[in-house]
User: Fold these one by one.
Assistant:
Number 1:
Amino acid sequence: IWIEPLPEEYPAGDEDDPVASYQRRESVELAYVAALQHLPATQRAVLLVREVLGFSADEAATMLDTTRASINSALQRARSAVAERIPEKSQQAELASLGTDGVGNLADAFVAAWERADVDALLELLTADVRFTMPPLPAWFDGRDEVGRFIAEKVFATRWKLEPVRSNGQPAFACYQNTGDGFFLGAVNLLSIRDGRIMWVAGFIDPAVRDHFEQKLSQKNR
């Protein structure tokens, strides 16, 4: 099952509560959402209802037609299973450690390298074990050498312009590709960071994802 990126405005409603906003962003981070795919259906539903949507145990029990005790038990098992699959340090913690200026500088450097098709400059921003994926294609590239070779030979064969966005509480970019007939939205790149470098570039190329983000960007720019 391939996960999809979520535009920054969803979920919303925690603007006046920084702690709740932080926790809510953690609950939609790419690694967290990926871990949910491995849960049994009931545990996944309970975790989403309780921790992402914020309903109480009693409300969740009513919604899922079960008991409060069953909800609490399923939630505990789900939390344990997810904890085994996600990094010890969340993306929100990574971004906080880097600081607003640090995140901005990293994003600016990523955009500049991508738009210049500067492979060497881009590789300087990546961890040694970086991963590059392109959902929904069942293909990925691991390590600086493999990622750099693929980007140089395939991705940078055409020109790009990037527009910063946010998705799943993480830095992201709407990537516009020029194939000779002008620029069009070719991918949405979502970045995961570790110790100030990019450890995962998820380039979503599903037309439905591109259309959804393009619609959101059009609304934003009105």
Number 2:
Amino acid sequence: MKKQHPLSILGLILFLYCLAAATPLSAQTETGYAVFYADYLEGRKTANGEIFSNHQLTCAHKTHPFGTLLKVTRLDNYKSVTVRVNDRGPYGEGLVVDLTKAAAAQLGMLSEGKAYVQVEVVGSSNTNPIPPSLQTAKSPSAIPTEYSSVSTTKVKDPYLIRELPAGLSGYGLQIGAYTNRANAERQLIALQKQGINRLYIKSLPGGQYKLIVASFPTRDAAMQYLQNLKQQYFVEGFPVNLSKWP
């Protein structure tokens, strides 16, 4: 039997290594269903230790390294979004990626709950992609005049963590509820970074902490602003009568 020369084996190994290195990242694709995160996970830690935010373009994937950038394309309408892996999952049958609401909105899948997608590796990064809503400055005309005093101008450091003043009248928007004040503060700062101002924390007996946008002269004004938050920031909430709080 002819003995294989060591240099031939080494050459084969080098050839296979170079072939693998030359394979473009975009060739790493898979298909399956995308879903998106539930609201109650807001402010919790992801698998890589970051604080989860439904307003960022991030995702969970079972195997790709943290920091991998994935292009997710919905295969029935060909809408796509690029997200960064910072969590693990999803683990249901046929599921390939778990998206934030901001990413799911780009695919138009918030009403369906899941969509059939192609997932393609396009690179890696230490920072999250910028949501389209933040790539250009907001137009002042997007804010109805009756609550134009509630600004969406981006706040500079340091970020303000304020307790809701006592004795306010009118209405506010409750956009979060927490049993841990630190989680409430993290979410307040995350929303300020998105450009949402007039945010307060309302501390209630029993260790409850409400995240409030305030204040509005009428319930209708609060509801109109809530629609603006939903469309631009994917923020959910409901109006509260501030005069009923101590």
Number 3:
Amino acid sequence: MPGVNRPSALLNCARPRIVPVDVVEVRARVSGYLDRIHFSDGQIVKQGDLLFTIDKRPFQNTLDQARANLETAKSNVVFTQSDLARGQQLVRERTISEQIYEQRAQAFRNAQASVAANEAMVRQAELDLEYTELRAPITGRIGDRRVTQGNLVTGGAGGNTTLLATIVSIDPIRFEFTFDEGALLRYQRLASGSSEVGGLGGTAVRLKLLDETDFSHAGRMDFVDNV
């Protein structure tokens, strides 16, 4: 394929740099002491594999407390609802004033709001407990661990979180190369098959590694960057 061989010469001359398509820094979303490490440095990991475990006990305690508070709030709803129902009968009989009845109605509404707030706290506590297990977000090769077991890990969404490891994708792989303006114009014309300057995006290419003699690796040019 002539259209493939011409860009191959470009890649051969430019000595491309091999870079991963995806690079992910593994950082915790919650803070705590690192309890376990579940991989070996340089290992190939699959998306979803367990990498690190942060000590779960404080987060489990928080979840248990949140669930207990929720049960208390639900019990208060039952009580205030029953009290409000009794108040409806009493206010019709003019045994209690309208003001007392409104106070009972307000207490019932507050109890319902408390249940909603405690349900949100339970969901957050469950989420924090889930975040104590750090799993691989992509498939690729994981580098060396940056923190050893027993150290305090700083998590969250801020800029001071602890870097635990880095994962790079290995399939597919990307090649980056540079060339001067003259080479760019020349190969744009070659790729378009005319004297007009066109784009290189989508152009089929073949390349070889330094210890290979044939252009046996096929690929496609993604884009031409501005720098």
Number 4:
Amino acid sequence: MPEPTFDSLADCLDWVEPRLLEAHQNKLERGQPAEMPTDMPWWPAGYAHDAEARAFEIAVGAVLTQNTNWNNVEKALANLHAAEVLAADRILALDDETLSDLIRPSGFFRIKTRRLRAMTEAWQDAGGRVGLQARPTNELREWLLGIHGVGHETADDILLYALERPVWVIDTYTRRLFHRLGFPETATKKYDRLADDLLTHTLEPTAPRLARWHGLIVEHAKAHCRVKPVCGDCPLIERCAYGSGLEKGE
């Protein structure tokens, strides 16, 4: 890995954010499809009709997106919506076979049936979005991590998008991006430590801003920062330690 071009993680974040946002806006102006919609936050919840329904739909999507891509999740959510069961009480009223069939497009459907049922039971027992909003963020995270099948990334997806708490979602895209920008420790650092580091160094880390950050990183990773990077016209190539090294043959 070539030498980093940033003095600190804070320096990196301050430089990267406006360039990813500009790239996103340019894509929209050219009429190209974008991962992140123009209205924030980024996480899609197309069937919700109120805040409670939206929060629950996001939580369902966060469970279903484990180990699959969002296109498959959309198919599963569409099935739940078409069956008129995209609500906690209605999901819990289904038998496992019916629920498994509905979420089959998301893959690992038998495992996800158990996980979705566990999350839904916990959500309903806690009083839904209204009941959960009364709890502090750290308590909510511990509660989420205590639910069968909910790991750190899924918990933070729900915290950020469903409950609007200011947390960094750490996924493969996030680790890859900052690793390549000259911070190799981000590839292996423990989830909580990396999330805390990013939160500490983010300017004005509100929930909408962190949701936008996550969406921008996903969009950038799919366009440029892939496993095999596409560095041509990358908006970050100027100060990307990894990309600059490739150009120099390092």
